[in-house]
């Protein structure tokens, strides 16, 4: 799959090694601000308009994941994929899209055979405006201000999302509520829970891009390097982990165990809740968890000993991928959905990827990973394109065609012989295919995630088993998909501030005791208000 | 009576022929000058349009400093909030004060180190005897000016970063690496050295041009009077450069609160906001990132007002010392 899909990490979150996922809503770490229910969004009004769910049953998975709440896995692409859509969805007029990307920008249309073929199949020329995910919210704010939104746009985390959507987006309720959605059968195939983030004030304003368990952040390891060092991809306690990092670090070779600070991973060792924990009707932020002093103790040790890449705080999101791919950092924290790209961009052909599940810090069992949110975002239709709303929904329906169809095959792997070669019936993307298919399609609409890793025999099983071992016990964010105005307005800023303190502590610029002070400030600067608003939203959503 | 009148008029015309012809000339001049200068004026139109479109038209945007601005509503529909947005400035918001403090410190460093640097370099280059050598050095020190900040920051990262050239070598040979990039204490020095490396060479062009304008005979005369090199520099070269130095200093004052937005935003994550936030990044982080557009615009507006005041008063001051300044008003 030509998909790399980390959640759009915020500026600070990248630095904190993804520690801030979800906290800093306004900088795009989470889905909290990305959509979700408004104040007037109770279950009663939601269920009235909620789109019907009709599961696509055209393919039978090799490994079924439903039981574990993880995606299905496939070893082979079906030999005769069905044609899911007979009529091209387009109307001949250009479709403009504003969204983000996590991969390099594709070659321009004239040089891009995939894009040309895509336009032909869609029946409308696609014009994409792609922004790196870390900068998307900034870009989005200015695009809204400049009135330059595309016909379709990924809703960014900006203040007053519901009001903004009322002003700028088409109300999709008449087209998608209840059985109306059956006109777009592949949108009806999207998991029910992810629609939460597309429904505001009792109206459907967006089509969700589903992810769920696949966007949980975990610790990737280069099993080949571990093996060469005589180390095992298994840790039983925090001390074990530090030992492993020690064994992987080699100053003379300029190799540092960790590409970024493993803040979230260490938090997982202490069962720190995923963003929020419920306390009766109230929500308590994970920042207030009492184990943080110990967490920082471990992280300080890792940093001081030089086990974390020295440029961990000075680089970009993509740098950490490079460090992992070229082996200069054999451990990296990333989402499960990053797996295909790691396989596709691996510089070392003998590289093996394995997940190291977090242990309990004291060695008393397994720690708890944070479960990814049901949707990574929602795509809305601009009011300017109101007259073409059916065409645009048909286009999104095309992009949501699931695994096993011809459309999916083409969308992710391009044309046989041009963009991919067939290896035992499986499409394996080549370099041309990898670069040309990056049109941000999977950040416009997508089918439910499927584990399919044709690059390497056995990888699908490896990932499936890794997810099976981690996800069923993973902690969900009770406020996922819920909307808080204070969170979109100030969440990013105050989240940045508290994460900055975390960075300072890890790097030894501030004492561990500074954490409590920073959290207190976070609470009074807006954190308490966010908790209150989300608790209210949670209450009315029940 | 009429005669006397005419006579007096004639007399006055006689008494001040210049004024008369000037008055006459002025009346005619606009048309005449238009006829004479229209090709030049036509040439100026594109530049004027650019100026209007990108400098004057955006000034309207300052309106949002007085609004609770929401991008999806636009300037037309956002609610007015009077001077509420300015309260950050007057109530002493700690983040704002931090940004002001960092800005002023950087401004001071730039005034003391960055501004005089090209003057010194120009003097040194000017004193080089070999023309070839001078051109060679000039070309090399100009080049970094043409690199964007992204590249400059990346180059510094590659050389001085944690896994940069120097530190890789140090580690490879068993020494302890140096902590430069990402080190809060070294941040200002880093910023300053980047600015020096990037723009000093370019800024010397102007000074070298001035140096070549200084009358050779002055040097000869001073040599005859027994002046050595230092004396010549002090009594001939520097006075010759004074008008341009003052002009640039005044213009620089207008920019003084603008200290390297792009340069800093690119490196902000490595050292954190406390050490690196300046007014421009504050405006960006709060406005575009935090959605507080009104507050950000208010801060930006006040910043511009202060800069304007600085330029005007510096210009006045220059006039008082008998210098030309930027303009005569």
Describe the largest sheet of chain A: 5 strands, mixed
Largest sheet of chain B: 2 strands, antiparallel
C-alpha termini separation of chain B: 42 Å
The arrangement of helices and strands of chain B along the chain is HHEHEHHHHHHHHHHHHH
Average pLDDT for all residues of chain A? 87
Spatial strand arrangement across the major sheet of chain A: 2-1-3-12-6
Mean pLDDT, all residues of chain B: 84
Q: Compute the gyration radius of chain A: what is it?
A: 22 Å
Shape category of chain A = globular
The percentage helix of chain A is 25-40%
Largest interface: A-B, 41 and 31 residues
Number of DSSP helical runs of chain A? 18
Q: Class of the largest domain in chain A in CATH? A: Alpha Beta
CATH architecture of the largest domain in chain A: 3-Layer(aba) Sandwich
Organism (chain A): Kribbella soli
InterPro entries (chain A): Bact_solute-bd_prot1, SBP, TAT_signal
Protein name (chain A): Extracellular solute-binding protein
Secondary structure: elements and pairs:
The complex is a heterodimer of chains A (542) and B (329).
Chain A: H1 11-15, H2 43-49, E1 95-101, H3 113-122, E2 126-132, H4 136-145, E3 152-154, H5 161-168, H6 173-176, E4 199-200, E5 203-204, E6 207-210, E7 217-222, H7 223-228, H8 238-248, H9 263-269, E8 276-279, E9 282-285, H10 292-304, H11 317-325, E10 331-335, H12 339-345, E11 353-356, E12 375-381, H13 389-399, H14 406-413, E13 420-423, E14 426-429, H15 431-436, H16 459-470, H17 485-506, H18 514-541
Helix pairs in contact in A: 17-18
Chain B: H1 2-15, H2 17-56, E1 67-68, H3 74-77, E2 79-80, H4 87-90, H5 94-114, H6 116-127, H7 131-142, H8 149-160, H9 165-172, H10 187-213, H11 216-224, H12 229-255, H13 261-271, H14 273-276, H15 279-289, H16 293-320
Antiparallel strand pairs in B: 1-2
Organism (chain A): Kribbella soli
InterPro entries (chain A): Bact_solute-bd_prot1, SBP, TAT_signal
Protein name (chain A): Extracellular solute-binding protein
């Amino acid at each position: 799959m030509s998909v790399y899909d980390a959640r759009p990490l915020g500026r600070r979150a990248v630095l904190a090694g993804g520690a801030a996922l979800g906290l800093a809503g306004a900088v795009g770490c989470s889905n909290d601000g990305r959509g979700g229910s408004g104040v007037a969004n109770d279950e009663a009004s939601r269920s009235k308009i909620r789109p019907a769910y009709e599961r696509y049953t055209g393919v039978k998975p090799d490994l079924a994941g439903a039981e574990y709440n993880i995606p299905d896995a496939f070893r082979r692409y079906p030999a005769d994929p069905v044609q899911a859509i007979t009529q091209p969805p387009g109307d001949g007029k250009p479709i403009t899209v504003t969204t983000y990307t996590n991969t390099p920008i594709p070659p321009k249309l004239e040089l891009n055979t995939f894009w040309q073929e895509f336009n032909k199949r869609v029946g409308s020329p696609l014009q994409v405006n792609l922004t790196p995910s870390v900068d998307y919210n900034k870009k989005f704010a200015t695009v809204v201000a400049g009135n330059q939104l595309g016909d379709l746009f990924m809703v960014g985390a900006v203040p007053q999302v519901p009001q903004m959507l009322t002003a700028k987006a088409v109300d999709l309720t008449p087209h998608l509520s209840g059985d109306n959605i059956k006109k777009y059968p592949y949108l009806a195939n999207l998991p029910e829970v992810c629609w939460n983030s597309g429904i505001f004030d009792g109206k459907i304003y967006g089509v969700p891009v589903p992810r769920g368990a696949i966007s949980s952040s975990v610790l990737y390891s280069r099993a080949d390097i571990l093996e060469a060092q005589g180390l095992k991809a298994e840790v039983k306690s925090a001390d074990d982990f530090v030992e492993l990092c020690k064994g992987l670090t080699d100053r003379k070779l300029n190799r540092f165990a960790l590409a970024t600070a493993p803040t979230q991973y260490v938090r997982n060792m202490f069962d720190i809740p995923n963003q929020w924990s419920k306390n009766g009707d109230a929500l308590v932020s994970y920042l207030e968890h009492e184990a943080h002093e110990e967490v920082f103790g471990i992280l300080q040790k890792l940093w001081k000993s030089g086990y974390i890449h020295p440029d961990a705080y000075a680089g970009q999101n993509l740098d950490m991928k490079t460090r992992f791919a070229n082996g200069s950092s054999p451990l990296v924290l990333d989402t499960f959905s990053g797996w295909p790209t790691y396989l596709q961009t691996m510089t070392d052909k003998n590289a093996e990827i394995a997940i190291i599940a977090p242990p309990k810090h004291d060695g008393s069992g397994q720690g708890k990973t944070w479960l990814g949110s049901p949707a990574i975002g929602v795509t809305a239709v601009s009011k300017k394109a109101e007259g073409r709303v059916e065409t645009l929904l048909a286009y999104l329906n095309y992009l949501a065609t699931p695994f096993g169809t011809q459309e999916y095959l083409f969308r992710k792997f391009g044309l046989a012989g041009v963009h991919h070669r067939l290896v035992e019936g499986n499409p394996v993307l080549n370099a041309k295919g990898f670069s040309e298919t990056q049109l941000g399609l999977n950040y416009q609409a997508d089918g439910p995630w499927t584990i399919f890793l044709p690059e390497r025999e056995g990888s699908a099983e490896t990932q499936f088993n890794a997810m099976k071992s981690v996800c069923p016990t993973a902690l969900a964010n009770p406020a996922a998909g819920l909307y808080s105005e204070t969170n979109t307005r100030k969440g990013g800023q105050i989240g940045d501030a508290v994460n900055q303190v975390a960075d300072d502590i890890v790097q030894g610029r501030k004492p561990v005791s500074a954490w409590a002070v920073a959290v207190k400030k976070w609470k009074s600067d807006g954190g308490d208000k966010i908790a209150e608003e989300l608790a209210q939203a949670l209450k009315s959503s029940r | 009576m009429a005669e006397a009148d005419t006579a007096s008029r004639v007399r006055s015309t006689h008494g001040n022929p210049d004024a008369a012809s000037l008055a006459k000339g002025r009346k005619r001049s606009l048309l005449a000058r238009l006829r004479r200068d229209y090709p030049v004026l036509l040439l100026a139109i594109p530049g004027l349009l650019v100026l209007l479109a990108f400098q004057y038209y955006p000034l309207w945007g300052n309106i949002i400093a007085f609004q609770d601005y929401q991008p999806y509503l636009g300037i037309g529909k956002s609610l007015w909030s009077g001077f509420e947005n300015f309260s950050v400035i007057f109530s002493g918001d700690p983040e704002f004060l931090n940004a002001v403090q960092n800005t002023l410190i950087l401004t001071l460093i730039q005034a003391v180190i960055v501004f005089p640097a090209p003057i010194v370099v120009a003097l040194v280059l000017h004193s080089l005897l070999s023309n070839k050598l001078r051109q060679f050095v000039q070309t090399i020190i100009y080049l970094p000016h043409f690199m964007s900040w992204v590249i400059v920051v990346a180059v510094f990262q590659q050389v001085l970063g944690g896994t940069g050239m120097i530190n890789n070598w140090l580690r490879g040979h068993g020494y302890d690496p140096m902590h430069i990039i990402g080190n809060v204490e070294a941040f200002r020095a880093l910023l300053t050295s980047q600015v020096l490396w990037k723009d000093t060479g370019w800024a010397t062009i102007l000074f070298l041009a001035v140096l070549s304008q200084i009358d050779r005979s002055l040097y000869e005369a001073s040599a005859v009077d027994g002046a050595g090199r230092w004396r010549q520099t002090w009594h001939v070269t520097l006075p010759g450069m004074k008008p341009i130095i003052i002009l640039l200093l005044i213009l620089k004052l207008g920019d003084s609160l603008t200290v390297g937005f792009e340069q800093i935003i690119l490196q902000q994550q490595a050292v954190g906001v406390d050490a690196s936030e300046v007014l421009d990044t504050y405006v960006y982080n709060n406005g575009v990132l935090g959605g507080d557009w009104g507050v950000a615009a208010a801060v930006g507006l006040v910043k511009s007002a202060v800069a304007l005041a600085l330029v005007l008063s510096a210009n006045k001051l220059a006039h008082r010392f008998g210098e030309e300044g930027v303009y005569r008003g």
